[in-house]
Amino acid sequence: MTIPFETDRLLLRTMQADDLDAVYEIWGSPEVMKYCGGASTKSQIQCSIKFYRRLQNEKGYSVYTVLLKENSSIIGVCGFNPAENEHEAELLYHFNQLCWGKGYAAEAAAACVAALRKNGPNVRKIIAAVDPANPASGKVLRKIGMTAAGMKWFEDTQQEELCYEMELA
Ligand SMILES: CC(C)(COP(=O)(O)OP(=O)(O)OC[C@H]1O[C@@H](n2cnc3c(N)ncnc32)[C@H](O)[C@@H]1OP(=O)(O)O)[C@@H](O)C(=O)NCCC(=O)NCCS
């Protein structure tokens, strides 16, 4: 993927160490992370930023920092985690609560999928799992063209989640 990449309103770039405070507003927020494994501490987020910088070099995709072009503020994170199957990548998006409801998640997620499809490594399918109690997230996935593929049990969250997928080929 060619980084950074942009949409009408957003710029997506590799995570940087000094994103920490802004990303803590997102990954450190119990409200934002309610359906996504819970809030992280600052030191956990520091490790995650290092992980995602490495992931970009190793796999050619990652989770990116999302900035609003009009004022360069960091409003979210969006991108891909490795999946169990090496030909699949898992889409995720977490946005600062102040920025929900403006279409940013769907705009960022669509751009990540387009960039992966265009310049990506050997990924053939994008997957995502949604807590059924989080309908906004399912809506984002359907907006960008992913389709529901049934319920699956997840050990980490100890619950059934609705799985979505999209073939890239
Ligand atoms: C889920 C999340 C990313 C959505 O971000 P967003 O920028 O508000 O998303 P969008 O504006 O692109 O679209 C959200 C859609 O869901 C709809 N929505 C919001 N709350 C909803 C609800 N409770 N029930 C049904 N639909 C809902 C919105 O109306 C919007 O649809 P519309 O464009 O047709 O009006 C954001 O709420 C978030 O960061 N949540 C916490 C993290 C999270 O849950 N991540 C995903 C799972 S890991």
From TrEMBL:
Domain of life where this protein originates: Bacteria
Domain N-acetyltransferase, chain residue ranges per copy: 10-169
PROSITE patterns xrefs: GNAT (PS51186)
InterPro entries the record matches: Acyl_CoA_acyltransferase (IPR016181), GNAT_dom (IPR000182), N-acetyltransferase (IPR051531)
Record-linked Pfam families: Acetyltransf_3
PANTHER family tied to this protein: GNAT FAMILY, PUTATIVE (AFU_ORTHOLOGUE AFUA_3G00765)-RELATED-RELATED, N-ACETYLTRANSFERASE DOMAIN-CONTAINING PROTEIN
Name of the protein described by the UniProt record: N-acetyltransferase domain-containing protein
Record lineage: Bacteria, Bacillati, Bacillota, Bacilli, Bacillales
